[in-house]
Design goal:
Elements (H helix, E strand, L loop, with lengths): L5 E3 L8 E6 L2 E6 L6 H12 L5 H5 L3 H13 L3 E12 L2 E12 L3 E7 L3 E5 L3 E6 L4 E6 L5 H6 L10 H5 L3 E9 L2 E8 L6 E9 L4 E9 L4 E13 L3 E13 L2 E14 L17 E3 L5 E3 L1
Parallel strand pairs: 9-17
Antiparallel strand pairs: 1-2, 2-3, 4-5, 4-16, 5-6, 6-7, 7-8, 8-9, 10-11, 11-12, 12-13, 13-14, 14-15, 15-16, 17-18
Length: 294
Protein backbone atom coordinates (compact mmCIF):
# COMPACT_ATOMS: atom_id res chain seq x y z
CA UNK A 1 0.00 0.00 0.00
CA UNK A 2 1.38 3.43 -0.90
CA UNK A 3 0.83 6.82 0.74
CA UNK A 4 -2.49 7.17 -1.03
CA UNK A 5 -3.78 3.91 0.38
CA UNK A 6 -3.80 2.18 -3.01
CA UNK A 7 -2.89 -1.50 -3.29
CA UNK A 8 -3.49 -4.55 -5.46
CA UNK A 9 -3.47 -7.69 -3.33
CA UNK A 10 -1.22 -10.41 -4.92
CA UNK A 11 -3.70 -13.09 -3.90
CA UNK A 12 -6.38 -11.31 -5.88
CA UNK A 13 -4.47 -11.94 -9.10
CA UNK A 14 -5.24 -15.65 -8.82
CA UNK A 15 -8.97 -15.07 -8.62
CA UNK A 16 -11.45 -14.56 -11.43
CA UNK A 17 -12.16 -11.10 -10.03
CA UNK A 18 -9.27 -8.74 -9.33
CA UNK A 19 -9.80 -6.48 -6.33
CA UNK A 20 -8.34 -2.98 -6.39
CA UNK A 21 -8.12 -1.57 -2.88
CA UNK A 22 -8.36 2.15 -2.17
CA UNK A 23 -7.81 2.58 1.56
CA UNK A 24 -10.31 0.22 3.15
CA UNK A 25 -12.55 0.16 0.10
CA UNK A 26 -12.46 -2.81 -2.28
CA UNK A 27 -13.19 -2.09 -5.94
CA UNK A 28 -13.77 -5.33 -7.92
CA UNK A 29 -12.82 -5.75 -11.57
CA UNK A 30 -13.21 -8.85 -13.69
CA UNK A 31 -10.13 -10.31 -15.31
CA UNK A 32 -9.88 -8.80 -18.74
CA UNK A 33 -10.73 -5.36 -17.43
CA UNK A 34 -7.89 -2.94 -17.90
CA UNK A 35 -6.88 -1.15 -14.70
CA UNK A 36 -4.70 1.52 -16.27
CA UNK A 37 -3.08 4.65 -14.81
CA UNK A 38 -5.86 6.91 -16.06
CA UNK A 39 -8.52 4.76 -14.41
CA UNK A 40 -6.53 4.49 -11.17
CA UNK A 41 -6.10 8.27 -11.09
CA UNK A 42 -9.84 8.76 -11.36
CA UNK A 43 -10.41 6.26 -8.56
CA UNK A 44 -7.94 8.11 -6.33
CA UNK A 45 -9.70 11.42 -7.00
CA UNK A 46 -13.06 9.85 -6.22
CA UNK A 47 -11.68 8.38 -2.99
CA UNK A 48 -10.69 11.79 -1.68
CA UNK A 49 -13.83 13.46 -3.12
CA UNK A 50 -16.56 10.86 -2.52
CA UNK A 51 -19.34 13.24 -3.54
CA UNK A 52 -18.14 12.73 -7.13
CA UNK A 53 -19.51 9.20 -7.03
CA UNK A 54 -17.12 6.42 -5.96
CA UNK A 55 -20.09 4.11 -5.61
CA UNK A 56 -20.57 3.88 -9.36
CA UNK A 57 -16.93 2.89 -9.83
CA UNK A 58 -17.26 0.15 -7.20
CA UNK A 59 -20.24 -1.27 -9.08
CA UNK A 60 -18.87 -0.80 -12.56
CA UNK A 61 -18.08 -4.34 -13.56
CA UNK A 62 -18.69 -4.69 -17.23
CA UNK A 63 -21.83 -6.80 -17.06
CA UNK A 64 -23.31 -4.49 -14.44
CA UNK A 65 -22.70 -1.50 -16.68
CA UNK A 66 -24.33 -3.20 -19.66
CA UNK A 67 -27.36 -4.19 -17.59
CA UNK A 68 -27.77 -0.68 -16.19
CA UNK A 69 -27.59 0.88 -19.67
CA UNK A 70 -29.96 -1.69 -21.16
CA UNK A 71 -32.31 -1.09 -18.26
CA UNK A 72 -32.38 2.61 -19.07
CA UNK A 73 -33.25 2.10 -22.73
CA UNK A 74 -35.60 -0.82 -22.12
CA UNK A 75 -38.07 1.68 -20.67
CA UNK A 76 -38.44 3.29 -24.10
CA UNK A 77 -41.08 1.48 -26.16
CA UNK A 78 -41.72 4.03 -28.90
CA UNK A 79 -40.53 7.43 -30.14
CA UNK A 80 -42.03 9.89 -32.58
CA UNK A 81 -41.25 13.46 -33.56
CA UNK A 82 -39.58 15.71 -36.10
CA UNK A 83 -36.09 15.30 -37.49
CA UNK A 84 -33.66 17.61 -39.24
CA UNK A 85 -30.75 15.84 -40.93
CA UNK A 86 -27.66 17.73 -42.04
CA UNK A 87 -25.08 15.93 -44.17
CA UNK A 88 -21.62 17.36 -44.78
CA UNK A 89 -19.43 15.81 -47.47
CA UNK A 90 -16.26 17.87 -47.67
CA UNK A 91 -17.33 21.40 -48.55
CA UNK A 92 -20.81 20.32 -49.62
CA UNK A 93 -23.61 20.51 -47.02
CA UNK A 94 -27.19 19.36 -47.49
CA UNK A 95 -30.10 19.29 -45.08
CA UNK A 96 -33.54 17.68 -45.07
CA UNK A 97 -36.42 17.73 -42.60
CA UNK A 98 -39.16 15.25 -41.88
CA UNK A 99 -41.06 13.22 -39.32
CA UNK A 100 -40.18 9.84 -37.85
CA UNK A 101 -41.70 6.97 -35.87
CA UNK A 102 -39.87 4.20 -34.00
CA UNK A 103 -41.55 1.27 -32.29
CA UNK A 104 -39.62 -1.49 -30.59
CA UNK A 105 -38.37 -3.99 -31.31
CA UNK A 106 -37.80 -3.36 -35.01
CA UNK A 107 -40.27 -0.95 -36.61
CA UNK A 108 -39.09 2.32 -38.13
CA UNK A 109 -40.60 4.98 -40.38
CA UNK A 110 -39.21 8.30 -41.57
CA UNK A 111 -40.49 10.62 -44.28
CA UNK A 112 -38.28 13.41 -45.57
CA UNK A 113 -39.25 16.30 -47.82
CA UNK A 114 -37.17 17.98 -50.53
CA UNK A 115 -36.30 15.48 -51.86
CA UNK A 116 -39.34 13.46 -50.91
CA UNK A 117 -38.14 10.10 -49.56
CA UNK A 118 -39.64 7.46 -47.29
CA UNK A 119 -37.87 4.72 -45.31
CA UNK A 120 -40.18 2.13 -43.79
CA UNK A 121 -39.19 -1.12 -42.07
CA UNK A 122 -40.82 -3.82 -40.01
CA UNK A 123 -39.64 -7.23 -38.81
CA UNK A 124 -39.06 -8.63 -42.30
CA UNK A 125 -38.73 -5.93 -44.97
CA UNK A 126 -37.25 -2.47 -45.38
CA UNK A 127 -38.50 -0.18 -48.14
CA UNK A 128 -36.86 3.02 -49.38
CA UNK A 129 -39.10 5.04 -51.67
CA UNK A 130 -37.68 7.85 -53.81
CA UNK A 131 -41.03 9.44 -54.48
CA UNK A 132 -40.06 11.89 -57.23
CA UNK A 133 -38.26 9.15 -59.20
CA UNK A 134 -41.04 6.59 -58.66
CA UNK A 135 -38.36 4.13 -57.52
CA UNK A 136 -38.57 1.81 -54.50
CA UNK A 137 -35.64 -0.11 -53.01
CA UNK A 138 -36.58 -3.37 -51.31
CA UNK A 139 -34.40 -5.01 -48.64
CA UNK A 140 -34.86 -8.22 -46.66
CA UNK A 141 -34.00 -7.45 -43.03
CA UNK A 142 -32.60 -10.94 -42.41
CA UNK A 143 -29.96 -10.40 -45.12
CA UNK A 144 -28.78 -7.01 -43.82
CA UNK A 145 -25.88 -6.58 -41.43
CA UNK A 146 -25.72 -4.08 -38.60
CA UNK A 147 -23.90 -1.43 -40.61
CA UNK A 148 -26.32 -1.62 -43.54
CA UNK A 149 -29.18 -1.14 -41.10
CA UNK A 150 -27.50 1.86 -39.53
CA UNK A 151 -26.90 3.41 -42.95
CA UNK A 152 -30.68 3.40 -43.47
CA UNK A 153 -31.35 4.52 -39.91
CA UNK A 154 -33.02 1.30 -38.82
CA UNK A 155 -30.46 0.20 -36.22
CA UNK A 156 -32.89 -0.12 -33.32
CA UNK A 157 -33.06 2.98 -31.12
CA UNK A 158 -30.77 4.97 -33.42
CA UNK A 159 -27.90 2.76 -32.32
CA UNK A 160 -28.48 3.36 -28.60
CA UNK A 161 -29.05 -0.37 -28.08
CA UNK A 162 -25.51 -1.06 -29.24
CA UNK A 163 -24.87 -3.57 -26.44
CA UNK A 164 -27.79 -5.73 -27.54
CA UNK A 165 -26.63 -5.56 -31.15
CA UNK A 166 -23.08 -6.59 -30.31
CA UNK A 167 -23.65 -9.09 -27.51
CA UNK A 168 -23.57 -12.26 -29.61
CA UNK A 169 -20.47 -11.50 -31.67
CA UNK A 170 -18.35 -9.41 -29.30
CA UNK A 171 -16.62 -9.67 -25.92
CA UNK A 172 -16.73 -6.69 -23.57
CA UNK A 173 -14.18 -5.35 -21.10
CA UNK A 174 -13.54 -2.15 -19.18
CA UNK A 175 -11.13 -0.13 -21.33
CA UNK A 176 -10.73 3.19 -19.55
CA UNK A 177 -12.29 5.94 -17.47
CA UNK A 178 -12.45 9.35 -19.09
CA UNK A 179 -13.71 12.59 -17.56
CA UNK A 180 -15.79 10.67 -15.04
CA UNK A 181 -17.26 8.39 -17.71
CA UNK A 182 -16.65 4.70 -18.36
CA UNK A 183 -15.26 3.45 -21.66
CA UNK A 184 -16.03 -0.16 -22.57
CA UNK A 185 -14.26 -2.09 -25.30
CA UNK A 186 -16.10 -4.55 -27.53
CA UNK A 187 -13.81 -6.89 -29.46
CA UNK A 188 -15.06 -9.35 -32.08
CA UNK A 189 -15.01 -13.02 -31.16
CA UNK A 190 -14.39 -13.95 -34.79
CA UNK A 191 -11.31 -12.90 -36.75
CA UNK A 192 -13.44 -12.78 -39.86
CA UNK A 193 -14.76 -9.35 -38.93
CA UNK A 194 -13.24 -6.24 -40.50
CA UNK A 195 -12.95 -4.26 -37.28
CA UNK A 196 -10.59 -4.57 -34.31
CA UNK A 197 -12.77 -3.07 -31.61
CA UNK A 198 -15.62 -0.73 -30.73
CA UNK A 199 -15.25 1.70 -27.81
CA UNK A 200 -18.47 2.70 -26.04
CA UNK A 201 -18.52 5.69 -23.68
CA UNK A 202 -21.10 5.47 -20.87
CA UNK A 203 -22.28 8.15 -18.43
CA UNK A 204 -22.42 6.24 -15.10
CA UNK A 205 -24.59 8.84 -13.38
CA UNK A 206 -27.48 8.54 -15.82
CA UNK A 207 -26.50 5.19 -17.40
CA UNK A 208 -26.78 6.46 -20.97
CA UNK A 209 -24.46 6.04 -23.95
CA UNK A 210 -22.56 9.19 -24.89
CA UNK A 211 -20.63 7.89 -27.88
CA UNK A 212 -19.13 4.90 -29.62
CA UNK A 213 -16.20 4.58 -32.01
CA UNK A 214 -15.39 1.82 -34.50
CA UNK A 215 -11.78 0.94 -35.42
CA UNK A 216 -10.54 -1.11 -38.36
CA UNK A 217 -8.06 -3.98 -38.16
CA UNK A 218 -5.15 -1.52 -38.22
CA UNK A 219 -6.58 0.38 -35.25
CA UNK A 220 -7.67 3.34 -37.36
CA UNK A 221 -10.91 5.15 -36.52
CA UNK A 222 -13.48 4.58 -39.27
CA UNK A 223 -16.73 5.64 -37.60
CA UNK A 224 -17.81 7.75 -34.64
CA UNK A 225 -21.29 8.41 -33.23
CA UNK A 226 -22.08 10.91 -30.46
CA UNK A 227 -25.33 11.32 -28.53
CA UNK A 228 -25.78 14.86 -27.21
CA UNK A 229 -28.16 17.00 -25.19
CA UNK A 230 -30.09 14.30 -23.36
CA UNK A 231 -33.47 15.45 -22.10
CA UNK A 232 -35.86 13.94 -19.56
CA UNK A 233 -39.30 12.86 -20.76
CA UNK A 234 -41.86 11.97 -18.13
CA UNK A 235 -40.40 10.78 -14.86
CA UNK A 236 -37.48 8.67 -16.04
CA UNK A 237 -37.12 8.49 -19.84
CA UNK A 238 -33.89 9.95 -21.24
CA UNK A 239 -33.29 10.51 -24.93
CA UNK A 240 -30.77 12.66 -26.88
CA UNK A 241 -31.93 15.63 -28.88
CA UNK A 242 -29.00 15.31 -31.25
CA UNK A 243 -26.98 12.47 -32.83
CA UNK A 244 -23.73 13.18 -34.68
CA UNK A 245 -22.10 10.57 -36.90
CA UNK A 246 -18.75 10.72 -38.65
CA UNK A 247 -17.71 8.09 -41.21
CA UNK A 248 -14.18 8.00 -42.59
CA UNK A 249 -13.48 6.44 -45.99
CA UNK A 250 -9.75 6.72 -46.69
CA UNK A 251 -9.11 10.44 -47.11
CA UNK A 252 -12.81 11.24 -47.25
CA UNK A 253 -15.00 12.08 -44.24
CA UNK A 254 -18.80 12.12 -44.24
CA UNK A 255 -20.51 13.87 -41.30
CA UNK A 256 -24.18 13.59 -40.45
CA UNK A 257 -26.14 15.36 -37.70
CA UNK A 258 -29.69 14.41 -36.75
CA UNK A 259 -31.53 16.95 -34.57
CA UNK A 260 -34.86 15.99 -33.00
CA UNK A 261 -37.76 18.14 -31.87
CA UNK A 262 -41.36 17.72 -30.69
CA UNK A 263 -40.42 14.33 -29.30
CA UNK A 264 -43.06 12.07 -27.77
CA UNK A 265 -41.99 8.90 -26.03
CA UNK A 266 -44.08 5.82 -25.21
CA UNK A 267 -47.23 7.05 -26.91
CA UNK A 268 -49.26 4.51 -28.86
CA UNK A 269 -48.27 3.92 -32.51
CA UNK A 270 -50.29 1.48 -34.60
CA UNK A 271 -48.41 -1.28 -36.44
CA UNK A 272 -50.25 -0.18 -39.57
CA UNK A 273 -47.91 2.82 -39.74
CA UNK A 274 -45.08 0.45 -40.65
CA UNK A 275 -46.81 -1.48 -43.44
CA UNK A 276 -45.57 -0.14 -46.77
CA UNK A 277 -47.44 -0.59 -50.06
CA UNK A 278 -45.39 0.41 -53.13
CA UNK A 279 -47.14 2.86 -55.47
CA UNK A 280 -48.61 1.53 -58.67
CA UNK A 281 -46.15 1.36 -61.59
CA UNK A 282 -43.23 2.04 -59.26
CA UNK A 283 -39.92 0.42 -60.23
CA UNK A 284 -38.93 -1.91 -57.37
CA UNK A 285 -35.21 -2.70 -57.10
CA UNK A 286 -33.59 -5.27 -54.79
CA UNK A 287 -29.92 -5.17 -53.62
CA UNK A 288 -29.18 -7.93 -56.13
CA UNK A 289 -30.24 -5.60 -58.94
CA UNK A 290 -33.48 -7.45 -59.65
CA UNK A 291 -36.20 -5.11 -60.86
CA UNK A 292 -39.85 -5.73 -60.12
CA UNK A 293 -42.99 -3.87 -61.05
CA UNK A 294 -46.34 -3.84 -59.36
Amino acid sequence: MDALGLKLAPSDLKEERVNLWIGERKVPFRKGSVVNPVGVSVLIVLFFFPFLGLNFIAASEVEDVIQMVNGQYSKIKSIQGMIRREIRDGQDTQSVTGRFLIKKPDRYYVEFSDPHQIVCSNDSLCWVEKVEENVVLKFHIAKMNRFEKEALGIGGLLGLNVFDQLREGFSFSLFDTLEGNLVLSAKPKSKARLISQILVKVDPKRWVILAYEIFDLKGKLVSQTKYEDYALYGDSLLFPKRVKTKSIYGEKTLEETDSFSRLRLNQFISDDKFEFIPPKKAKIITPEGVMERR
